Amino acid sequence: MYNTKEIRKNAFRITKVRGQTAMRIRVPGGHLDVKYLPLIQEIANVYGNGTVHLTSRQGFELPGIDMKKISEINKKIFPFLQMLNIGDENAENGYPAAGTRNVSACIGNKVCPFANYDTTSLALRIEQEIYPNDLHLKVAITGCPNDCIKAHMQDFGVICMTNPLYDESRCINCNACAENCRQKISGALYGESSVIKCHNELCIGCGECILKCPTAARTRSQKYYFKLLIMGRTGKKQPRLAKTFLEWASEDVIVQVIKNTYAYVEKYIDRNLPKEHIGYIFDRTGYEIFREMVLKDVKLDTETKVADSICFQAASDKT
User: Fold this and answer.
1) Which of 75, 118, 171, 259 has the fewest CB neighbours in a 10 Å radius?
2) What are the tens digits of pLDDT across the range 71-85?
C-alpha cells in the first residue's frame, strides 16, 4: 500500500494506472538550463515510458514510473533541488512540497520587444519566497498587457508595466503612437498643440507607444512597475477572470503581498475540507479582510493604486 498523500506532496502524480506514477519537475519561469535535459531524459528512459509531457504551468511531467522507484528517483533529482536552492548535498527525499504550483512566466524582455521586464528573474524571486509550501496557489507573470501567460486566470497574475518617458524635443508629431493607442489599446494618447499628451488615468503601461515612435521620443521608464491581478480561476465550479488589486506597484510590493497571502490562507482556510481554493476563501471573508492582511507592513509607493473594492458575481446572481 502507498501513502498517496505523501506521494503527491513529493511532487508525484496519482495516475489512472494502479502502481504507476508521473514525476513533476518544477521549472520556475519556464526557463531551464539545458544541462538538466540529459537527467530528464535519463529518468524518462530508465524509470518512465520514454516520454515527457510539457505542462501548462511550464514544468515537466514524466509518466509511466513504477511507484516502487520513487525513493530511487528522489536520490537522483538533487540537481533540481539545487536549482531551487532547497535541500542539502545529502538530500534524498526529493521535492518537499507540491502545493504551490510552479511559478510560470512569459519569455520576457530578454527576447520579446513588447515585454517590459525580465519575467524569469521575477519568477525565480517569487519562487524563492513561496516554495516549498503545501498551499495550492498559482502565480504567473506576463511581460506586458498582451498577457501571453494568461495572468487573468491565476490566483495571482503579475503584469509588468512601464511609465513611458516623453522627450518633446524629439517628437515630430507624426501621431504614430497616439493612433496606435487609439486603435489597439486604451486611447490614452492624443495630439494637442503639436505635442502628444496622455490621459494618465487611461494609460495601462503597455509601452507600445515606445515601439511605434520613429524618433525615440518615448522611452521606457527607469523605474519598473507592476499590476497585480487576483483570484482568477478555471475549473468546473464558477471559473472567472482575475480582477485588478494593485497598479503601478514596485517589485518589492508585489513579492511581499504574495508572501503575506499565505498567512491569510492559513488563518481562514476551512480545515474541514480536503482542499479549499483561495478564491473561495476570498469570497467567504470578503475583500476588506484580504486587503488588510496582505498589505500588512507593506510600504506602498505614492504612485501605487489599490482597488477600492473587488467583488465577484456569484453564479446564482448571473442572469
Assistant:
1) 75
2) 999 999 999 999 998
